[in-house]
Write a structure and sequence with these properties.
The protein is built from 13 helices and 10 strands. It is an alpha/beta fold. Strands 1, 2, 3, 4, 5, 6, 7, 8, 9 and 10 form a 10-stranded parallel sheet that branches. It starts with a helix and ends in a 61-residue tail after the last strand.
C-alpha cells in the first residue's frame, strides 16, 4: 500500500503526515489492519526498539472535583460509586509509589483531582516528590494536578518533578461540549507553563467520546504545536453515573488504528497506552505494543486495570522488554532536556479514531471495574 510506505518513510525522517494521509489511515479496512500495524511498528522499533516503559499512577486525592468534565468519574455531580478521599500524606503516597516501582515501573505519576493546586497543595506535592526521590534512585516523577498558576511549575521542578501531565482531551471546537467550568485555552496555557519551566511536557487525548475524525485531527495538530515528549492515548471508560456512560464507540480494531495513527504522527515521541486499554483493546493488547512504547502498570485513578503480573507476562510473551531505569526513553535528539525539539517540524501528538469497525452489539460494561484497592484503602495495590 503506497500510503503506508509513504508514512513509514516520513516516520523514519520525522516528517509530518498530511491531514489527508492521517484521515486515510483511520479509514483503512479491517482487511488492511495488520498491514497498518506492521508499518507503524517499523517506525516504533526504529526510534524505541522493543523497549516498553512502565508508568505507575498514584491517585493523591480522589473524587470531590468541582469541574464538570463529562468523561470523568470524579466530576462535579458524578454518581459513579468510586473511592473518595482527601490528600494522601507524603509517606502514604511514597508507600503507594513503592509498590509500582517494585513491579518494574520507571515513572510515578502523581495525580490529584480538582481545578488546580493551591500553593499549599504544591508544597504538599513537593514534599511527596522529595520523599519518593529520596527512597528510589533514578525514579522519574510526573505531576498531574490540574491547571497551574504562575510560578507553580517552577516550584514543582525545584522539588524534583521531571514532568507534568495535562491532556487536551479533544479539539478546541468541541471542548465546550464536554467541559464548561474551564476552557481549552486554559489547558493549553498549563502545558506551556510546564514546558517553559523545564518540565517534560506530557499531553494527550481521550478517544471514544463521540467526536468526529476532524475533531481528533485538530487535537493532533494542536499537540504538535505544543511539542510534548509524552502522548498518552486514553480510551474512554464509560462509567455509570457520568454523562458519557452510554458512549461505547470503540472496538479493538479502532483502537489499534488510533495508536498506529499516533505513531505515524509522533514517530519519535513516547506514545503511551493509557486508561481504557483493558476495556477496549482486550485480547488485542499485545498487538498494541507494536505501536506504543509505554503503558501504565496496574490500576488507574478510579478503575482497576489488568494485574501487574499479567502486564509483565504480556510484554515478555509479545517479544518486548521492560525499559530499565538506566535507559533513556527518548531518542538522543529529544533527550537533551526536559522537552525535546523537533528538527524540521517533526510532529508529536495523539491520533484519532476512525469510522472503521462497528461497536459491539452489547457494550462490555462488565469490564469497567471500580478501583477498591491501593491508595486511599487498606488493601494492597495492584502492581
Amino acid at each position: 500500500m503506497n500510503l503506508l510506505n509513504t508514512l513509514v518513510d516520513k516516520g523514519l525522517r520525522r516528517e509530518t503526515p498530511t491531514r489527508e494521509e492521517a484521515l486515510a489511515v483511520l479509514a483503512t479496512s479491517d482487511d488492511d489492519l495488520l498491514d497498518v500495524v506492521a508499518a507503524a511498528g517499523k517506525v516504533r522499533r526504529h526510534w524505541f526498539g522493543r523497549r516498553v516503559k512502565l508508568n505507575y499512577l498514584v491517585n493523591l486525592k480522589s473524587g470531590l472535583c468541582p469541574e464538570d468534565c463529562s468523561y470523568c468519574s470524579q466530576r462535579l455531580g458524578s454518581r459513579a460509586d468510586i473511592l473518595k478521599y482527601t490528600w494522601l500524606k507524603p509517606d502514604q503516597a511514597s508507600q503507594a509509589a513503592a509498590a509500582g516501582l517494585a513491579g518494574g515501573a520507571k515513572r510515578v505519576c502523581l495525580v490529584a483531582s480538582g481545578r488546580g493546586p493551591t500553593d499549599r497543595d504544591v508544597d504538599r506535592v513537593s514534599d511527596t516528590i522529595k520523599a519518593i526521590k529520596e527512597q528510589n534512585e533514578g525514579v522519574e516523577v510526573c505531576a498531574c494536578l490540574g491547571l497551574l498558576s504562575d510560578g507553580q511549575a517552577e516550584r514543582l521542578r525545584e522539588a524534583g518533578a521531571d514532568a507534568y501531565n495535562h491532556n487536551l482531551n479533544t479539539s478546541e471546537s468541541t471542548y465546550g461540549d464536554i467541559t464548561t467550568t474551564h476552557t481549552y485555552a486554559d489547558r493549553v496555557d498549563t502545558v506551556r507553563k510546564a514546558h517553559a519551566a523545564g518540565l517534560s511536557a506530557c499531553s494527550g487525548l481521550i478517544a471514544g467520546m463521540g467526536e468526529s475524525d476532524e475533531d481528533l485531527v485538530d487535537v493532533v495538530l494542536s499537540l504538535r504545536e505544543l511539542d510534548p515528549d509524552s502522548v498518552p492515548v486514553n480510551f474512554l471508560i464509560p462509567f455509570e453515573g457520568t454523562p458519557l456512560a452510554k458512549e461505547w464507540n470503540l472496538t479493538p480494531q479502532r483502537c489499534l488504528r488510533i495508536l498506529a495513527m499516533t505513531r505515524f504522527v509522533c514517530p519519535d515521541v513516547e506514545v503511551r497506552i493509557a486508561g481504557g486499554r483493558e476495556v477496549h483493546l482486550r485480547t488485542m493488547q499485545p498487538l498494541a505494543l507494536h505501536l506504543a512504547n509505554s503503558i501504565f502498570l496496574g490500576d488507574y485513578l478510579t478503575s482497576e486495570g489488568q494485574a501487574g503480573k499479567a502486564d509483565l507476562e504480556m510484554i515478555a510473551d509479545a517479544g518486548f522488554e521492560v525499559e530499565g531505569t538506566g535507559e533513556v526513553t527518548l531518542p538522543e535528539h529529544r533527550a537533551g532536556g526536559g522537552c525535546g525539539s523537533h528538527e524540521g517540524g517533526g510532529a508529536c501528538g495523539p491520533a484519532a479514531a476512525g469510522p472503521c469497525g462497528s461497536a459491539p452489539e452489547e457494550p462490555r460494561t462488565d469490564l469497567v471495574a471500580v478501583r477498591r484497592r491501593g491508595a486511599g484503602t487498606d488493601l494492597a495495590p495492584n502492581a
